[in-house]
Amino acid sequence: MDRVKSRVDGVTTGVRATARIVARDDGRGGTSLPVLAGEGPLALRRTRATGDEARVMLVGAMSGPLGGDHLTVEADVGGGALLHVGSAAATLALPGQAKGEARYDVRLEVAAGGELRWLPEQLISARGSELYVSSRIDLARGARLVYREEQVLGRAGEEPGRLTSRLTVRLAGRPLLDQETACGPGAPGGWDGPAVLAGHRALGQLLVVRPEFTEFPAGARMLGERAALTPLAGPAVLVTAVAPDALRLRRVLDEALAAVL
User: Fold this and answer.
1) What family, per the record (predicted)?
2) Domain ranges across the chain
3) Which of 32, 37, 106, 219 is deepest in the core (most CB within 10 A)?
4) For 194-238, what is each residue's pLDDT tens digit?
5) Strands 115-118, 82-87: parallel, antiparallel or unpaired by DSSP?
6) pTM, rounded to two decimals
């Protein structure tokens, strides 16, 4: 599919596109999707699921995000609904004809009694790209969340682009987590040093929010040599990890998820 660009005052700008998912309890022990709509490079497909969950795949209908693009994915999970969101392939940030930084926004909301499993494939920052990722999650008290974020700096044998990522999570209207990382050319010094990535090219985190952590909190501990589990000031745990490559990062986060759940 060809990329459709807009022009402002004779200047080519990037693609603007939004994908939106709304999940609701269908009243019959399952989850319905009254809204499942994508645009441009963001295509959504419902896939086969088991039990009471709805499963959605995010499919890249064209290349992106490229320079100047602004892509947004939104998911709204109601009480009693269970939504699992994945992606068909890794997201590849590339330089584009349009000037400027690309943006990728993720906006997630989960009501009390709802559950969201956000488990997309990796985001790869290719050489020459500039991408700002903003993820904002709003959870009601009693909501459940499994959120995975994986970033790979450069393709095989390639230097990375500039990648900045901010994750903001609020629980019952109060801050649960707010952090930002920046890597690649132009990022603050030290991002590749021993106190941050120490030469690794894959970094990721796993956030799990479950009401039962209030009664049975997890203890802080190391998970192997390159990952750590940290309980948050709320019914949540955060696993952070670095690895030499995407395959080993996924293995660490999968093992961490199994241990947490």
Assistant:
1) Belongs to the UreD family.
2) 12-260
3) 106
4) 878 888 999 999 999 999 999 988 889 999 888 999 999 889 999
5) parallel
6) 0.92
